Amino acid sequence: MGTMTTAGTHEFTVTDSELLIESPILAVRKDTLIMPGGTSSTREIVEHFGAVAVVAFDGEQIALVRQYRHCVQERLWELPAGLLDIADEDALLGAQRELLEEAGLEAGQWSVLTDLITSPGFCDEAVRVYLARDLTQSERPEAQGNEEADMTMEWFPLTEARDMIFAGEIANSIAIAGILAADAVIAGRVEARGTDAPFRYRPTALAERRKADGIVPDMKKL
What we know:
It is a single chain. By secondary structure, this protein is α+β, with helices and mostly antiparallel strands. It has two domains: 1-47, no CATH class; 51-186, Nucleoside Triphosphate Pyrophosphohydrolase, CATH 3.90.79.10. The chain is built from five helices and ten strands. The protein has helices at residues 91-103, 146-150, 158-166, 173-186, 205-212; strands at 14-22, 27-34, 40-47, 51-56, 61-69, 74-78, 81-83, 105-117, 126-137, 152-157. Strand 8 (105-117) and strand 9 form a beta hairpin. Helix 3 crosses helix 4 (173-186). It is globular and about 60 Å long. The model has no long low-confidence stretch (mean pLDDT 95). It holds the Pfam family NUDIX. Residues 47-178 form the Nudix hydrolase domain. This is Nudix hydrolase domain-containing protein. InterPro entries: NUDIX_hydrolase-like_dom_sf, NUDIX_hydrolase_dom. It comes from Corynebacterium efficiens (strain DSM 44549 / YS-314 / AJ 12310 / JCM 11189 / NBRC 100395).
């Protein structure tokens, strides 16, 4: 029998890793780990590029987009958001790009509301959510895909968006985290972080493999 270690101190060493699926926006690998007690176990991990999302606040209202999500076969209210799928792109630049593309907005003031790991049980996706203020309307680029062409945007008072969460009308986890964090910051209960705050949980496995294979700058183009 293996020797048990004190709870919370075991090193989960990876002894083998196998790539199971490689697709444009994600991959799946299977890792073999040494577990407490010395036994081996496997874990399937969905690899992701990471993403950014934006709470765009005009002093009273925030911008929400409504987008079809085939996983649940419904249109969901969400924050303007997108993948960090351009090689080595700074997260703030990605957020600025997505805000322009999805909402036709630019912002003069940016801060970091929260970083969240969306599904840590099986996926390394992490999302940085920004607060954008001092907004100006700009020309939204032409939609690049069918889903984006179907997307709509509306303005909601921040208090109404917050209430939509508790009414079950906003179910997207990134939107929930961002809206509640923005509500706390704007009310003065907490302070947002600066945009230079380290994005500790930004995923690297998928991006580093794509870059090593020369799939740049758009790492989705297998």
